[in-house]
């Protein structure tokens, strides 16, 4: 039997070869590869980097999909199914919208696919593929088999999974619902073994919230410190309340923490059910503590809550510029299916499309709901302008100097490489039509 993994892309504008130059390894594919029996042949097409061979000889196509890539995944599935190849789909979108996904696939995996992959392959081999597999939560994923990435041009950063889920209940978050508001830490020795195997100096610790289990994070930091790796990961601002933990993280190789500040408006934080972000204390002081520990911050902000106005953008930008963050993202709110946000906006009659991810003409960067204080177009364009202003040379220079003071000289190129590319990508990504222009290279 042969399985073809296909990682779908979002889309491209006419004439674009691909969006951006940096693509992360699709870690899920490597995890499933590790669980695939040796007598099953596999191959991978990454739609973000290469053209898909729709005529490849195969028995089963496996497509992991997110909401942004759902429409493209359905189009890919239709091409394979037209020639009689069975298609299985999984991932966040398949879990949050399983009935919709089932309309386009022979089988759907709800939850983590690792738990049911071996059964699914055996069913496929014996011609008894079921319509739905319930994967539940797999808290101890296997060591990924990354040999399937050979020859693909991925970012030279090792992805290592450290935990799944998060105990918080942020209204817009798809992850929280997926894991039913629980955190599932991965065994520390498994993480260390993956890090030791990684050929890369820089690692991204894949975790929805590293701070969800402080004791686990402490043990992890102590365990990986001797490995001499440099890493980035995703946490929350309350990290700054624990100076001893901050020092431990730095010793373990932490260079950058992604923190969802989301909003500076108390009303917006309350509405998104993240009020603890406001009560943690004075933000600037907490940010300073993280910076003083020698750790940079990738700050993320979200706009479009009912109390957000034009002044909110100005205030947020001033805060981000003053803080000299390593980098920052300025996103508009997006109602993902299966989230409380989606249900609320639907109940209030404010969704511009029932399913924006399938809507004809919908493109990346468009706002899919009616904001309370400005038009959808104004919200989208203010987010784009915030990204451009933050990436402008004057800001870049000031942030770069601050970053140099936090890190050893060997780490300095990381700041410039990452920020230069992120700045260039702002307009490359805006208005990319979903599921478009992917089946041929531009002439
Ligand atoms: S803290 Fe982050 S991962 Fe957790 S629910 Fe909120 S947005 Fe989701």
Shape: globular
Classified by CATH, the class of the largest domain is Alpha Beta
Which CATH architecture of the largest domain would you pick? Alpha-Beta Horseshoe
How many domains would you count in the coordinates? 2
Structural class computed from helices and strand pairing: alpha/beta
Rounded to an integer, what's the Rg over CA atoms?
Answer: 22 Å
End-to-end gap:
36 Å
- pLDDT averaged residue by residue: 94
CATH superfamily of the largest domain: tm_1862 like domain
Oligomer: single chain
How is the biggest beta sheet arranged? Answer: 6 strands, parallel
Strand content: 15-25%
Can you characterise this structure?
This protein is of the alpha/beta class and 443 residues long. It folds into 2 domains: 2-136, Cobalamin-binding domain (Rossmann fold), CATH 3.40.50; 146-429, tm_1862 like domain (pyruvate-formate lyase- activating enzyme), CATH 3.80.30. The protein has helices at 27-34, 70-82, 92-96, 98-102, 117-125, 174-178, 188-197, 214-224, 243-251, 266-271, 276-279, 283-292, 310-323, 340-347, 376-391, 393-406, 412-429; strands at residues 2-7, 41-46, 60-64, 86-90, 107-111, 132-136, 158-161, 163-165, 183-185, 202-206, 230-235, 254-262, 296-303, 327-332. The chain is globular and about 60 Å long. The mean pLDDT is 94.
